[in-house]
Amino acid sequence: MTIDPTLIKSSFAAVEPHGSAVTAYFYTHLFEHNPDVRKLFAEHLNEQQDRLWAALGTLVNKLDDTDTVVNVLQGLGRRHAGYGALPEHFPAVGASLLAALAHFAGDAWTPETEASWTALYGVVTEVMSAALTEEAAG
Ligand code: HEM
User: Fold this and answer.
1) What atom in ligand 1 is closest to the CA of residue 59?
2) Which family does it belong to (predicted)?
């Protein structure tokens, strides 16, 4: 399955008006299913909540601009080495991300939409993990 930018954009647009309820759902889901990652997020969760979703918004908006997307993801990946994130954390974060999107997208969430987000998150994981691993190795 390939990434369908139209489906990604329409589902993200359906979720966006729900604002901070989406981020709250995402973190509750993540920490409930993976209590061990909670400690990585320190006390800064409120600022952090908005930044993760702002970064996702940038990716969705720039989806057709591969160079920018890859640059943004490489920068994020390098910085995540300093947060203690590991490549094996990505599936858990992706599962909670998709759960939050599915919960708030309503009718915009279809099997095709889910497959498209799964493919996009696969790319995010690949590029961020590679940059993170490289950075962690020094
Ligand atoms: C879709 C993938 C992800 C995106 C878009 C994302 C985005 C962000 C952004 C924008 C920040 C704010 C700081 C910065 O810009 O460098 C951040 C911080 C952080 N992220 Fe991620 N992230 C992702 C995946 C992950 C994963 C897999 C983990 C592992 C558990 C993680 C853990 C953290 C931590 C611990 C912080 C610092 C929080 C703090 O300041 O307490 N992120 N992330």
Assistant:
1) 5
2) Belongs to the globin family.
The pick from 27, 47, 52 for probing ligand 1's pocket by mutation, whose C-beta has the most ligand atoms within 8 angstroms, reads 52
The residue segments making up the domain with residue 101 are 5-137
CATH number at residue 79: 1.10.490.10
76 lines ligand 1 (CB under 6 A): yes
pLDDT higher than 70, residue 132: yes
For the chain, give the secondary structure using H, E and C.
CCCCHHHHHHHHHHHHHHCHHHHHHHHHHHHHHCHHHHHHHCCCHHHHHHHHHHHHHHHHHCCCCHHHHHHHHHHHHHHHHCCCCCHHHHHHHHHHHHHHHHHHHHHHCCHHHHHHHHHHHHHHHHHHHHHHHHHHHC
Residue 2 clears pLDDT 90, i.e. is over it: no
Looking from the CA of residue 75, the nearest atom of ligand 1 is 16
pLDDT one-digit tens code per residue, 47-97: 667 788 889 999 999 999 999 999 999 999 999 999 999 999 999 999 999
Number of domains in the chain: 1
